[in-house]
Write a structure and sequence with these properties.
alpha/beta; 6-stranded mixed sheet; Transcription Regulator spoIIAA; 7-stranded mixed sheet; 20 strands; 399 residues; 10 helices; Archaeosine Trna-guanine Transglycosylase, Chain: A, domain 4
Amino acid sequence: MTPRIILKRGKEESLLRRHPWVFSGAIDYIEAEDEAQIAEGALVEVAARSGEFIAQGHYQIGSIAVRVLSFAQETIDQRWWNDRLQVALDVRRTLSLTDNPATTCYRLVHGEGDSLPGLVVDIYGTTAVVQCHSVGMYRSRQQIAEAIRTVLGDRITAIYDKSSQTLPFKADLGAVDGYLWGRSDHASQVVLENGQQFSVNWEKGQKTGFFLDQRENRELVKRYAKGRTVLNTFCYTGGFSVYALAGGAREVCSVDSSERAVALAAENMRLNFGGNAAHTEVTADAVEYLRDIGDRYDLIILDPPAFAKHHKVLGNAMQGYKRLNTRALSQIRPGGILFTFSCSQAVSKELFRTTVFSAAAIAGRKVRILHQLTQPADHPINIYHPEGEYLKGLVLYVE
């Protein structure tokens, strides 16, 4: 018997609207033959107080108690995984990402956006990188790997699991990153994104090796960069820097607190432009670097890591965003362009925009919004799960 989560009366409403999470406070009681059946990661059914089936998904310990896999009473077997991965691939084929010679890296699975909450799969050339954010997905990783092989066939030669740092800390699974199938002689691969070259290391790099969610926003930087002096803060592997120089920037400066990140940015610059690129790298805390930049730059990119991982630290995070944007807005050259982002899921579009508005007022500059940015279409947002819209960005013209 599959364990059943019985909800408190009235707590099924969000699920009937197809929201893919069950919160622990909504649970009345659990039906299971023994305790082992309800271990973290177990497949469970969710039912209304009346006993009527609503959904099934992975059980987990924490405020989100169930991540829904299906709202149908169906068997979650290898065929089910194959079908889900096939639909995800079809979406990327629709986006012209699967056979695009100019772009050989993309996101194949984006959690709730692909009705696979807790799972991320990124493609880098012939390698698929799997990242599990829930115990249920981690326990299903071999079925996931088999589904990837089935739908991608000979397009891939290796599947790498990089879940050790993204699984719930208290799950104590002893997860070790490694290949689920195949092998690569090198832990990195040069991939193309809109024709630009990037060296991606999925074993040692952040996330799955590269920040794929800024692809379209990097292309927009390229459009605005001609003749400008560009500052790329929190540069990581220098994605925005490469696009800025490709767009004809006069000079680009990449800043990151990580020496390794700055070295990667320099490597990607050499890949695309050789050894004589108009590019400087600075290893420094970006917030401190912005304290006194004068009016050297007329295109600045602020793409910090998530300041707010959850709502408890939201107040401090918004002060951080305000301080960061105030420093850039007060010193950018007149006629300058500011690209500013938040990748914190806890920060709404409205709150981020209000915070940047406050920064502009403190800086005393006249500012126009040119673009309001979000994540690309291979990071889709489930219409029933608005929390999936995590990336927010504004492009500002500063007089």
